[in-house]
Amino acid sequence: MNIKDIVNRDLVTLTNCEHEPIHIPGSIQTHGFLIGLDPDWKIDFCTANISSFVDLQHTDVLGKNFTTAFGSKAQEQILDYINKDKVQNVFPLEINLLEKLFQVSIHKSQDIYVLEAEPKFPDREKLADVYTQTIQFVTQMNNTTSLKDLCALVAEGTRKITGYDRVMIYRFDEQYNGEVFAEDCREDLEPFLGLHYPHTDIPPQARELYIKNQLRLIVDIDYQPVPIFTIDDKENKNLDLSLSILRSTSPIHVEYLKNMGVGATLTISLIHHDRLWGLIACHHYSKKNISPEIRLAAKLQGQFITSQIDIRQSNDENVNARKTSLALEELTSLELPLSEESLETIITAPQLLQICNASGVSISIKDKIYTHGLTPSDEQIVRLTAKINDRISDKTFATNKLSDYFPDMEQCSDFAGIIYHSLDSASHIIWYRPETISEINWGGDPEKAIIKDNTGLHPRNSFNIWKQIIKNQSNIWKQYEINAATHYAHSVHNHLMMIMLSEEEEKYRTQSEILKETNSELENINWISTHDLQEPLRKIQLITSKMLTELDVIPLDSVSNSLVRVSKSAGRMRILLEDILKYTRIKNTRDALQKVDLNEVLQATIIEMNEDITESNVVIESESLPEVYALNFLMRQLFSNIIQNSLKYASPDRFPVIKITASKDPELIGHLNKIYCHWVNFSDNGIGFEQQYAETIFKVFTRLHNQDQYTGSGIGLALCKKIMQTVGGNIQAVGKLGEGTEIKIYFPCDPKESLL
């Protein structure tokens, strides 16, 4: 039978250091021995140091049945222990092997049962002290609120229980760089609290082992690894020691600890949400071993931390989270109009920054950008969003270091970190944080964590404090801040959807009104074409027919009267056709509105109507009129029609007077569910009308009097209404029968909102 050792002697190099097979070192530490049993209870693996603990050599036991080497009673005890539900994970088996007491830890590696035996510890009487200290710790733990306070308490409690010279709570960041988050140590030792260590100090395969095996013990840094021997019956035969207590340590790690002056260590994994959150790292500056009971007590300290991480982090963030929640509640409760003007209210609300503790925010809607606080320029915002849309597929994106994603972006301290949310294909909201320059104290230069020489790789031997200045990044966004931003981004999106639906509803309502009015106009036009236009045509036809039949006998003066009547009928037809043409032209006007001085319009109108004004002896009194958004030629037609209407319906009992008044300065005027900026009022002392006809007089071809009393087509005030609709304004009339009429017109504030 050939026997060989399985020691891994491969040299660690730069190309394989991250893949060093530390789970199969082929050796163990010296404070115990190991044997491996195959499914038939044959001893397939054994360490060379078994003879240091019992009167056997490894060559004597390899290939033999366990019962032959250690007796059937020992085998029965081990079988009974293995078959008990998970007990072996708590306390090791106490067993007599060849008249010596051992504490044996047992685990399974593939199909091999691995037995690791250590001499029974004599200080079991100290368990009462450990129990008392644990009870005290739990009591004190309930008095802490923050995670940092809890970790400090665990460091102190672990040191009391284990007796190590230094106990550190080591916390990892997202890249597995470590920070000494809490510490308790001998007074004569230099503290490591607050120091940072690079991720290379604990390579990936070591982190994987820390997750598999939550307790790691090195009793003596100066130990000489004990080789494991096996029967040479397979090629590349090995033994996975991931769960081993005695497993030998990577030479690089041992050298690292020696460079720190450490003599012994205990490491307990802190696992949170299936991820290595941190470690309890215990250092002693001479040899040190602890009993399995104290190991368990120390392991419980780590579980105290991991069970409380979520709660304590919540407590740490609770105050700010409550402020964020309150700001979000206030923000979402704002009463906002269903128009884009509401974005002015949103962007200036202080709660918009408070919900995620940002320094600035921007909302881009189509081609318009609203900003508040410390933000990039509009041009930078456009460039930034274009890059995000090109490179980031998600609709949400958050980072505290924008330069990592877009190094070609111009570096700006005003927006080192952002939270971005797409609202739709052309809209988004972004919160900004400025650069926060920070200083990190590393335990040695992180760039020199590994040193290479002719013999391979070595850990750094200098742990002097090395300061690093961090730029181009902001404070990290907390998850509750990101959640609050996401929540409100959805609210803004919903609000924009409601605005769009409201605008569509208004559009359809307006179109419906226009369609209704157009149908009414068509009915009126149809009526005028079958009645008003046919009446003068019938008269012309009747008169001319009579003249033709009586041509030889009709007197000359009768011919003259008949021709006058024909001329009047033709004139009436011409006026009707001209007014209809004016009406349709106004309806199709689509020119851009512009500022119009109504004083100039009134002056030009009075000049044009000079003959009618003189003939009527009317007095026109006018105040200073404002500048409004309109079309000049339409305003002249509007003023002309209103004044002409007052002249037409002047009272025969008094001289006509027309007074024109107006708003002095722009003011928001609510009228008919719309907002206007200016009004102009025309009042006369004419015959007036009954108020019940205030809407009727603006309908096309509508007359309150018969044509014999007052001439005209009935289109004049309908033209006025159409003109005001075209410029986005409004018109209303107030009449008092026998006293006069007031015509009031309203003008819009913004031409973009005025066009129908």
UniProtKB/TrEMBL annotation:
Gene3D superfamilies per the UniProt record, alphabetical: 3.30.450.270, 3.30.450.40, Histidine kinase-like ATPase, C-terminal domain, PAS domain
Domain Histidine kinase: 528-751
GO annotation, biological process: detection of visible light; regulation of DNA-templated transcription
Catalytic activity field: ATP + protein L-histidine = ADP + protein N-phospho-L-histidine
Top-rank EC class of the record's enzyme: transferase
Domain of life of the organism encoding this protein: Bacteria
PROSITE patterns for the chain: HIS_KIN, PHYTOCHROME_2
UniProt keywords, alphabetically: Chromophore, Kinase, Phosphoprotein, Photoreceptor protein, Receptor, Sensory transduction, Transferase
Enzyme Commission number, as recorded: 2.7.13.3
Transmembrane segments: none
One GO MF term attached to the UniProt entry: photoreceptor activity
InterPro entries: GAF (IPR003018), GAF-like_dom_sf (IPR029016), HATPase_C_sf (IPR036890), HATPase_dom (IPR003594), His_kinase_dom (IPR005467), HisK_dim/P_sf (IPR036097), PAS-like_dom_sf (IPR035965), PAS_2 (IPR013654)
Domain Phytochrome chromophore attachment site, first and last residues per copy: 146-303
Family: In the N-terminal section; belongs to the phytochrome family.
Protein name, as recorded: histidine kinase
Organism for this UniProt entry: Flavobacterium johnsoniae
